[in-house]
Amino acid sequence: MSETQRDPVIDTEKPVLVTGATGYVAGWIVQRLLQAGATVHAPIRDPERAEKTRHLDALAEDSPGTIRYFKADLLEDGSYAEAMAGCGVVFHTASPFTSDFEDPQRDLVDPALEGTRNVLTEAAKTESVTRVVVTSSCAAIYTDNSECAAAPGGVLTEDVWNTSASLEYQPYNYSKTVAEREAWAIAESQDGWRLVTVNPSLVIGPAIGGKPTSESFTIMERLGTGEFKQGAPRLGIGMVDVRDVADAHIAAGFLPEAQGRHITSGHDTDLYAASQELVGEFGDRFPLPGSAAPKWLVWLIAPKAGLERGYVARNVGVPFRADNSKSRQALGVSYRPLGQSMREMFDYMIEEGYFTRV
Ligand code: NAP
After folding, report:
1. pLDDT grade, residue 306 (50/70/90)?
2. Domains, the chain, ranges and CATH?
3. Cα of 179 to ligand 1 centre, how many Å?
4. Structural contact between residues 95 and 178, judged by C-beta atoms closer than 8 angstroms
5. Percentage of the chain lying above the pLDDT 90 cut
6. Residue to mutate (ligand 1; options 25, 118, 327; most atoms within 8 A of CB)
7. Which protein residue's CA is at the shortest distance from atom 11 of ligand 1?
8. 207 C-alpha vs ligand 1 centroid, how far in Å?
9. What is the pLDDT, as a whole number, of residue 99?
10. How far is the CA of 218 from the centre of ligand 1 (A)?
11. Secondary structure class of 92 (helix, strand, coil)
C-alpha cells in the first residue's frame, strides 16, 4: 500500500474497537486487523443475527486474529463501555449512509452526532485508549461541486469545512459535518488520545461479504438496472476504493505521527465517466448508460427524479476537485485505478444477486 514506505505496524497487544463492523467500509478494516492477528472488539446492534456477522466469522476463521461481538447502539448512552474496556485504538465508523430516510434529524443526524458523542466520551473515560479514528467524509468538507472552484486554489483541502448543508438541504452531509465537529470538540477536551479522521469521497469496490446497506451499493445498482440507460448525468463526484479507505484507516490508527483530517479520494470523476468503466466488460449484458445526459435535460426533469433544480445547477457538469496529497504522503495510501474498483464492485454485485431483475 505504501507510496512513501510509511507502513503502519498493527499493535496486537491490546484489543482494537471497531464500531459498525457489520458495515461495508468497516468490513475491510476488520479484515486487515484480523489478518495482522489483532483481537477485534465489535460492538453491533444485533449480535444475535447470524446473517449480519457470518462473513466476519468466516474471516476470523481464516486469519490469526479473533473477533468478539458486543451489543451496542449509537443512540444508547454507555452501551460501548464493555466493548471498549482495555482497547488501545478505536475506529468509529458506524453512522447511517443512506438516502432512504423519513426524518433527517431522527434517521441521520441523531445517530451520527449522538453516536459520535457516545463513542468518543466513552473513549475519554477509558484509560487504555491512545488513538481514535473517526470515519468522517468529504461530505463534512463540501455539499455542492460549485464549492470546489470557490475553495482556495480551486480545490477542496482538509482546511475546508462544509458550511452549506442543513437538515433541509443534503442532510447526510449535514450529519457528517456536525458529527466530525463534535469529534474534534471532544478530542480537544481530553488528553488521553489523539483523534485522526479519514474523509472518504464515494466509496466503491467489492464488499467483504453480504449485501451491505450502504448507499454506495444503491448508486451502483441504479447504474446496473438501467435507470440511466437513456443517459447518465455528468454529476461531478469523487470516488475511492473501499480497500484503499481501509488502508487509510489502518495508517490513521497505527502510524505514530498521523494527525488531523485526511481527504481519502482516489479519483475526481463524474457519474457518466465512471459508468463507462463498466461498458467494455458488462455492456453486452447490462443496460448501462450509453451517453451523457445533457445538463439542460437533467435540469428539466429534475423535480420528477426527486432532485432540486438548484442542486443540478451546482453539481451537474461542475467538476469535483479534491486534493488527496495528504493521504498519500502522511498515510502512504496509493489509490487503485477507478476502472478496477468499478468492475470488481460490479462483479461482486452480480455474484451476490443484486441484478436479478435485469
Ligand atoms: P454501511 O455499510 O451502511 O455501514 C453503516 C454501519 O453503521 C453499519 O454497521 C450499521 O449497523 C451501523 N449503524 C447504523 N446505525 C446504527 C446505530 N443506531 N447503532 C449502531 N450501529 C449503527 O455504510 P458504509 O458505507 O460502510 O459507511 C460507514 C461509514 O463510512 C459511515 O460513517 C459513512 O458516513 C462513512 N462514509 C461512507 C462513504 C461511502 O461512500 N460508503 C463515503 C464517505 C464516508 P447495522 O449493520 O446494524 O445496520
Report:
1. confident
2. 16-351 (3.40.50.720)
3. 13
4. no
5. 93
6. 25
7. 20
8. 13
9. 87
10. 14
11. strand
Which of 100-114, 209-223, 243-257 shows the lowest mean pLDDT across its residues?
A: 209-223
- Catalytic (active site) residue 176: yes
User: Of all atoms in ligand 1, which is nearest to the CA of residue 172?
Assistant: 34
Query: 22 C-alpha to center of ligand 1: Å?
Result: 8
pLDDT at 2 exceeding the cut of 80 = no
pLDDT value of position 245: 98
Q: Alpha-carbon distance 278 to 346, whole Å? A: 8
Q: How many residues does the chain have?
A: 358
pLDDT given for residue 213 in this prediction: 82
Q: Is the dihedral angle over the CA atoms 107, 195, 324, 5 positive or is it negative?
A: negative
**Mean pLDDT score, 137-163:** 97
The stretch 41-55 carries a mean pLDDT of 95
Does residue 76 register a pLDDT over 60? yes
Q: Tens digits of per-residue pLDDT, 314-329? A: 999 999 999 999 999 9
pLDDT confidence band for 195 (50 / 70 / 90): very high
Instruction: Give 142's pLDDT tier (boundaries 50, 70, 90).
Output: very high
**Annotated catalytic residue, options 71, 176, 304, 326:** 176
**Across the beta sheet with 131-135, what order do the strands follow?**
66-71, 39-44, 16-19, 89-92, 131-135, 194-200, 263-264
